[in-house]
Amino acid sequence: MINKKTKILIVDDIELNRALLCEMFQSKYEILEAEDGKSALRIIEQEKDNLAIILLDVVMPIMDGFSVLEIMNEKGWIDFIPVIMITAEVSDNVMGSGYELGAMDIINKPFNPNIVNKRVENIIENFAYKNSLEQMVENQARKIREQSERLHENNLRLIDALSSIIEFKNTESAQHVFNIRIITKMLLNTLVEIRTDYHLTQNQIELISEAAAMHDIGKIAVPDSILNKPGKLTPEEFEVIKEHTINGCEILEHIAGIKEMDFYHYCYDICRHHHEKWNGKGYPDGLVGNEISIWAQAVSLADAYDALTSKRVYKDAYSSEVAMQMILNEECGVFNPDLLECLIQILPLLAEKNGIIKKDNPEPIETIKVEKQKKQPMDVSARTLRLLEMERQKYKIISELSDEIIFEYDKENDKIIFSEEFHKITGNDTIVFDLKKKGTLLQYIREEDYYFIMSKVEELSLENKMLHLELQLNLNGNGYEWYSVRISGLWDISYEVKCMGYVGKIVNIEDEKQKSIELEKAANYDSLTKIFNRHAVETIISDYLKTASSAAVCFIDIDNFKMVNDHYGHIFGDNVLKRIATIVQKNLKEKEVVGRLGGDEFVVYIHDYETKEALHKRLEILRAELKMELNDFVLSGSLGVSFYPENGKDYRELLYKADQALYYSKYHGKDVCHYYSKECENIPFRSLVSNVDDYGDEVDYIGQLLKLKGDSSSK
Fold first, then answer.
1. 544 Cβ partners below 8 Å, 6+ apart?
2. Residue 222 domain-assigned (yes or no)
3. What contacts 20, CB < 8 A, 6 or more positions away?
4. Which residues have a Cβ under 8 Å from the Cβ of 658 and sit 6 or more positions away?
5. Rounded distance between C-alpha atoms, residue 227 and residue 236, angstroms
6. Is 173 found in the same domain as 85?
7. Of residues 236 and 177, which shows the higher confidence score?
8. Which of 125, 334, 355, 523 pairs as cysteine with 278 (C-beta 3.0–4.6 A)?
9. Does some domain include residue 519?
10. Which of 335, 361, 387 marks a domain boundary?
11. Are 187 and 343 spatial neighbours (Cβ–Cβ below 8 Å)?
């Protein structure tokens, strides 16, 4: 290792987490621990020259991880001590804040030991390289100033050095610069062979291929936290990356002794324009087509191809075939069609060039090491075992103190284990059930619910962590009651993400559920007839109308109903209203609704009727069923109907028109079904619906009915 620092600082308020991290690194480093941010800062102050890296938790008492980073920035420590943040919260805000404050990486809890180990080692190595390379750049710049008179003859050596620095700083393949030179040269040689309209000499092509090595020199000015970020760049970070094209030109301008050379002009043009695109969607100048020099276009295509076929910090290498297809699909931007033709021609030759196309190489040493680690059991210290046992005891005590049923499902053995509370509620001495034996839990849960739960838990993942269901269980032998069931997965991520089982809890919510049901009924249902009230029916019909191609609203008024209450009393009248509601309900189909508007008035909604003739037959049958013969008189129903969309676009307009049609029926002798027409508007009436609904009059609906309609209609 280049880095000679020997200590790692682990900052986490949970001792078990610190212990697990200690297990990973104690063989290579001296481990320092802190349980909060303030303690960490004291250690950093004392040991800053010896710290190879800091593993920093985000959420801690006294002082959190973000506050630690802020102070490290103020004191300048973040410039020479890399920090990895470890957090259970994976939100964009947390990650964005961490990277903004200078964290080199962010690892999510629960963490994979192998991944953490590899990331820590890589960052320590890269940070050491960065520091050494920055020193190299500084020293080289001093030599450039001192020896500017010799730059002319040493120009190419300088280019190689600077290019190599960029490669190491960017942690890309060390062969990237070589690949860009070769591919650019091959593209341009092929181009002048197959096309006569591109006038490039062999000497020019040689100069261009050498100048191509300078394309990313501007990345020296890009912060390492952005340049080597493993994840997706933010829009702000991408804007910083884009500035390397301008920065590269500025660096070239300060290199004395080469401005008068053709080589310099190729370098400058390539630095500035190697990210321009054929369709004008590149940067920094938004050039289109042949506004971009052919050499900048060639370097751009070479850079895209090599980037795809090389392993980078944020991706694995693609095969040459996949890379070529991605380029042709314009996934990397739009390129000159002539150059694309050249790339297709040289593709077989590229595959033969060592280091340009990655063939099926032997497995990397790092991978072999990981595979060996998989086969070796991890040594666990006495401290870690003690902490794990304490966690187990905590879980046991919490489950015993809770009046909720806690359960754990062992997926490998297909067994479910319940807490002692299960025994208290069910009276069953068995708290461990073997699910391989069919029907073991079906005494407590309906079969369809059991299989539904088993299917839903399979959808759980590290991203979708929690399943919450409300269902009926028969646990106490007194019948089915409502329970809340919450389930979360247990994941083994040591080497690959694997679900080991589930934990959850079961809580009785019968009282809350019944209250909720009663409140829903009170809010939406008529207390007498148990059908929808006028507020609920308006909401439901309005919703149905959004998807209806045709619909009908039928307003029903019971003829002579006042005489029922006068002759037989209100209790008898209430029973009549209940019977009417039952009659209407049994005649309804799917997406058809009946509601009581008040008194003896009902509304029926018919969704997407087949024909008006068929609808008329149904309504006539309904009208006939509403007729009731009493001792002194006959009850019947008058109906008024409006149609969507011809009579109205919304519920209130349709109800108003149906009300007008109803009064037309009343005016022409009652016990009639009439459909809205223009002649309905000439019948003198005052709409109760409009009055009550539009102005929110809270007076008794039946009282209004009697007041406005009176006995003159002989109801």
1. 551, 591, 593, 605, 607
2. yes
3. 113, 384
4. 553, 554, 555, 603, 640, 641, 642, 676
5. 13
6. no
7. 236
8. 334
9. no
10. 361
11. yes
Handedness of CA 367, 370, 374, 376 (dihedral sign): positive
Contact 164/150 with Cβ under 8 angstroms?
Answer: no
Q: Is 557 in contact with 662 (CB distance < 8 Å)?
A: yes
Q: In 3-state terms, what secondary structure has residue 274? A: coil
Q: Are residues 115 and 31 in the same domain?
A: yes
Overall number of domains in the chain: 4
- The residue written with tokens 């001590």 in the block is 81
Question: In 10 A of CB 27, how many CB atoms?
Answer: 7
CATH (domain of 652): 3.30.70.270
Residues forming beta bridges with residue 553, ordered by sequence position? 605, 642
The reply to whether 317 and 420 lie within a common domain is no
Q: What is the mean pLDDT of residues 121-144?
A: 73
Final residue of a domain: which of 513, 544, 565?
A: 513
* 338 lies in the same domain as 483: no
Domain identity same for 418 and 447: yes
Q: Is residue 394 part of a domain?
A: no
When pLDDT is averaged across residues 22-29 and rounded to a whole number, the result is 84
Burial 444-458, CB ≥16 within 10 A → b, else e: bbeeebbeebeeebe
Per-residue pLDDT at 363 exceeds 50: no
Band of residue 712 on the pLDDT scale cut at 50, 70, 90: very low
Of 220, 267, 255, whose CA–CA distance to 241 is shortest? Answer: 220
Instruction: Indicate the pTM of the whole model.
Output: 0.40
CATH number of the CATH domain containing 117: 3.40.50.2300
**How far is residue 35's CA from residue 85's CA, in Å, rounded to a whole number?**
14
Rounded CA separation 9/120 (Å): 12
Residue 637: phi and psi, rounded to 5, are: -120, 135
Question: For residue 71, what are the contacts with CB-CB under 8 A and spacing of at least 6?
Answer: 41
Residues 487 and 576 both lie in one domain: no
Chain-centroid distance of CA 131 in Å reads 38
Cα–Cα distance measured from residue 295 to residue 212, given in angstroms and rounded to the nearest whole number: 9
3-state secondary structure string, 181-223? HHHHHHHHHHHHHHCCCCCCCHHHHHHHHHHHHHCCHHHHHCC
Q: What is the pLDDT of residues 72-91, one digit of tens each?
A: 999 989 888 899 888 877 67
Q: How far apart are CA 389 and CA 382, in angstroms?
A: 10
Residue 210: CATH number of its domain: 1.10.3210.10
Q: Residue 336: pLDDT band by 50, 70, 90 thresholds?
A: very high
Domain that holds residue 407: 402-513
Please tell me whether residues 438 and 584 are part of one structural domain.
Answer: no
Question: Is the pLDDT score of 562 beyond 60?
Answer: yes
Residues 505 and 531 both lie in one domain: no
